[in-house]
Amino acid sequence: MIATTRRFRHLLTRPGVAGPAWWSVVSRLPVYLMSLAMVLVVREQGGDYARAGLVSALYTLGMAVGGPAVARRVDRSGRRAVLTATGLVYPLALSVLVWATAPAEPAQLLLALLAGAALPPANACMRSLWARLPLKDEERETAYLWEALLTELLVIGAPLMLAALMVTGSARLAVTTVAVVGGVGALGLALTPLPRETEDRETEDRERAERARAADSGRGAGRGLLGPLRDRAVLTLLAVMAASAVPIGLLVLAIPAFVDAHGSRGRTGLVYACWGVGSAIGALWLGRAGSGVAVHRRFPWLLLAYAAGTALPLLATSELTLALALALGGAPIALVSASEMSLVSSLAEGRLLTEAFTWASLATVAGEAVGQQAGGLLVGPLGPHGVFAVALAVALMTALGAFAARGVLGRGAPPPPPAPRDTSAPPHTRKSS
Question: Domains along the chain?
Answer without folding.
Answer: 7-136+160-210 (1.20.1250.20), 230-411 (1.20.1250.20)
